[in-house]
Amino acid sequence: EKKVLASAAKDLTPSYDWFQTDSLITVVIYTKQKDMNEELVIVDCQDKRLRGEIIMDDYSYLVEVDLDHAVSEEVAVNIAEKIGKVEIILKKKDNIHWKMLGQPWGCHNTFIKRTDRELFYRKCKLVSKTEVTHDTKLFCFMLPKGTHLRIPIGQHVYLKQIITGTEAVKPYTPVLPFLPLDFQETSHHDGVHIYLMIKIYSCGLFTQALDHLQIGDYVSVSNPEGNFKKSQVQASEDLILLAGGTGFTPMVKLLNFALTEVSCLRTAKLIFFNKTEDDILWRNELEQLALKDERFEVQFILSQPTKDWVGKQGKISSSLLSEFVKRSRKDSKVLICICGPTPFTEQGVQYLKNLGYSQEEIHAFTA
Ligand code: FAD
Ligand code: NAD
Fold it and tell me: To test ligand 2's pocket by mutation, which of 241, 339, 344 has the most ligand atoms within 8 angstroms of CB?
């Protein structure tokens, strides 16, 4: 019986091979996983070094080689989703015959737990920086040509900078360049740009350094991480998003996905907690979206409003939640996502549980 188990485990381990034509090198990874997709393949090819990582549930398979000869900067990735075959296609710089793919290095040909895999960073160029509010900016970074990286909904990346001689790392959640007001515009997810909405704190170590970056400067961006599963929202009929401040960032892709791809979705509601009116991120865009899509509703709640604020005020509480968190029908499948300052998220989850929502119906975004 042991033998059978061992061979079954071996059969699940991906393998790789490579072949060439006069002008191309193709590295093929046989993942043996049926539902491969773009988000599960991360490729980086820079300065003759190729790194290809395949994410398979909680595991990661890695191909890491110092290539035998130089290749051009561009890399193409082909995925045969049903059979789980991934092709990484490189262009030879010189049309010569390669005797070998190259020298293995690092963790080449290993299949290990994702959590045991060291985070990989590549340098990305800052291409634009636009104001969102008085203290929050939308940063757009460009991936290098040799990188194939798609950040899944609900996941974050780490940014790394050297600040006064010391390496500093902080997590950020990619957003879209705008909300899905015009469906044609969504073709803007080009796989090349990463948009981050970041609040600059006046005493913030990392955000001050980010704010001082010039267009054209580089920042290291990691592979994605996070435990949100798209399937959670794919089945939901009522989506409720509770956001505090920049806790809005994971909600952007989530809302876009729900409104454009989830056919069973009946309602989507964002309850957005901020200190003042000036702090509300993408207020106009959210109001426009609510006008355009009748399934979507937004509620702003301020904790430090000025006297002329006629809307809701207060901090997250049982009474506010019981007023705004509701199923559209008695038996609807609901998903409640919550993200913001840690006490906000912790209190929110507790209130939701007290209101009778189950663990499976709640997703809290945390570090
Ligand atoms: P710090 O130097 O750490 O301090 C920031 C400010 O907050 C300072 O004014 C400081 O006085 C104060 N402060 C520090 N710690 C505390 C505390 N415990 N309680 C109260 N005040 C405190 N931020 C975004 O803007 N956009 C995002 O998309 C985003 N995504 C994130 C995703 C994840 C998974 C997590 C965990 C955090 C995310 N953050 C995001 C927050 C981000 O990682 C940083 O924490 C933030 O940018 C502040 O970094 P800093 O080094 O500039 O600030
Ligand atoms: P903020 O200080 O402007 O607060 C926004 C609102 O959150 C407040 O108006 C209030 O309603 C609520 N709030 C704040 N402190 C609270 C408390 N102690 N108890 C109850 N409610 C409270 O928020 P900010 O400066 O934009 O910070 C956003 C936070 O979200 C950061 O801590 C950031 O790390 C976190 N964040 C986490 C993730 C993640 O885990 N995936 C992603 C993005 C942001």
Answer: 344
Instruction: Tell me the Ramachandran region of residue 278: left when phi exceeds 0, alpha when psi lies from -120 to 50, beta otherwise.
Output: alpha
The CB of 210 under 6 Å from ligand 1? The reply is: no
Indicate the residue among 222, 257, 285 that finishes a domain.
Answer: 222
Query: What total of structural domains would you count in the chain?
Result: 3
Parent domain of 179: 121-222
pLDDT digits (tens, 9 = 90+) for 170-186: 999 999 999 977 655 55
Ligand of minimum distance to the alpha carbon of 305: 2
Strand arrangement, sheet containing 296-302: 312-313, 296-302, 267-274, 238-244, 334-339, 362-364
**Residue ranges for the chain with pLDDT beneath 50:** 1, 187
* Domain boundary residue, one of 91, 116, 141: 116
CATH code, 235: 3.40.50.80
Q: What is the ipTM of this complex?
A: 0.96
